[in-house]
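Example 4.3 (complexes with small molecules)
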Amino acid sequence: MNLRKHLASEITRLDGRITFVDHLAGNAEDVTMAVAWYPPDDAFDHYPNLKAVCSIAAGADSIVMNPSLRDGIDVVRVVEPAQAEMMSGFVIWHVIWHQRRFATYLANQRDRLWKRLGPRAASEVPVGILGYGAIGARVAADIARLGFPVKVWSRSAKPTPDGIAGFHGADGLTAMLAESEVLINLLPLTSETRDILSSDLFNRMPRGGYLIQVGRGEHLVEADLLAALDSGQLSGASLDVFVGEPLKPEHPFWNHPGIMLTPHDACDVTRPAVGKTILATAEAVEAGVRPKDSVDLGRGY
Ligand code: GLV
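Answer. The structure with glyoxylic acid bound is encoded below.
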């Protein structure tokens, strides 16, 4: 198979994002498959016979929400266990950062202050996870193995193994938040989950809670986070994703004492996994079948 014929775009790195530059096939009508990441609004209008668009990451929100995506085009995302493992390690580090009060120890070290704060057992620090897909399931299992009480929330009911309590729906969210000292956001971005991390949500957590935000920047109402940190409703937050990336130098998050931030680097898919997904999608398009790991466009993930 000549893959080039099937790819609608050549991939170009631009500020850490990838955008369409041009199609490689001779005629736009010949293009049946595209590879995209934050494509321009009219990207798919140029290809009347497009059957599938492949994301180059786990998230496909920038494609699913693209105004030129039309019925009959499947959106495919990369699903890779190694990415879930990498995310899990990242999140665990931040859970323990909060549990063991490392931010305070770091500040005390700078002040040459010898002050024992007393360790807290993992069993004393309940963790709630928003989102229970492939990555959420791995993160939940790993955190539970370390002894933290773990609860997970998803839009609809999902089975969970022993030791992980599952919640769903609006009432389930309130119940889980009430018992989540640490809250980890792993939700996909959809019209329903945009702005979910708001004052209303923070106020339903125990006072002094901690947020680990590794979903999408648009999940978070940034002003509400600053208010929750300033009032003490939240004691801190680890942020890896932002509404505007790269984060502007003047953004208040950079200097906030309660915030630890990283530049959307919690985890990534590997190149071989992206290549495999592109190839499998091209084969499915050629065979006229729905590609594996296609997004449910009704749900948005
Ligand atoms: C990263 O943001 C991803 O969607 O994999």
